[in-house]
């Protein structure tokens, strides 16, 4: 269960919900699989709905899905842009699902096709949403730090601020995949008051050079396991990291990393069903948010960042103190 702390800053937590997150299979473009095929958002939505419905029946109040869970990442495939044009349709269906089951949902990311107002040219945005248990969108985040192969196809949010927002489970911030590598993003979110940072991802073991893979074939797994827990400690926050996984029994497909987890300072990584595997699955994790408050008492990270004369400067300081 997510237990509200005794501090006033947690007054937005009106009930103690458990987190749930699903590591879904990242669909392939070919192969005789019994699982969703790439570029088939309808089938993928149906599978995601099954996970979410199951989670709600087990008492969860937040469900989180991976990045690119509806389409996979195939920007050069001819059907891809037209499927991304359907983004509102699937967002509204997730809103209806959240309202029906009274569960908050972060539906991974949804790639959106838009027309640039200035040029009229088409552009793709990779967007994460936070939908509350009434079906309302409380937060939206467009991916800022694009992975190198994405930069040819996606538009970054560049200098837009990282915003935190109130939800039924507390103050939340959203990041996406490669954002994990940038501590500055976390600093800006905790400066805005975020205590829970949710990160849908599509991170594979092959996101590494041949040199790196020769040194350590699981180098990217080491990156993820180290960074997720480190971010929780160094920001005295809860980090929910949800990554794409392979179809059951087919962990070689695209070398999907999986390793979805919830991390807390003091505690480390949680989520036994998914934190050590690349296979699809779902973990339901009880999170006591008092741990976050006790960690801040111990480490004083937020306190130090808020002090006058603090010796590091950040972009958010132009708009006020933490």
The helix-strand sequence is EHEHHEEEEEEHEHHEEEEHH
Low-pLDDT windows of residues: 1-17, 24-37
The largest sheet has its strands arranged as 7-8-9-10-11-12
- Total number of helical segments? 8
Q: State which percent range the strand residues make up.
A: 15-25%
Detailed description of the structure:
By secondary structure, the chain is of the alpha/beta class. Helices cover 26% and strands 20% of the residues. It has eight helices and 13 strands. The protein has a six-stranded mixed β-sheet, with helices on one face. It has a four-stranded mixed β-sheet with strand order 3-2-1-13.
Question: Tags for this entry?
Answer:
322 residues, alpha/beta, six-stranded mixed beta sheet, four-stranded mixed beta sheet, 8 helices, 13 strands, 26% helix, 20% strand, globular, disordered N terminus
Write the layout of secondary structure elements.
Elements: E1 19-23, H1 41-57, E2 62-64, H2 80-84, H3 87-101, E3 104-106, E4 110-115, E5 122-131, E6 137-142, E7 164-167, E8 170-174, H4 183-191, E9 196-201, H5 210-215, H6 219-234, E10 238-243, E11 261-264, E12 268-270, E13 281-285, H7 290-299, H8 301-306
Parallel strand pairs: 1-2, 2-3, 8-9, 9-10
Antiparallel strand pairs: 1-13, 4-5, 5-6, 7-8, 10-11, 11-12
Helix pairs in contact: 1-3
Summarize the structure.
This protein is α/β, with parallel strands linked by helices and 322 residues long.
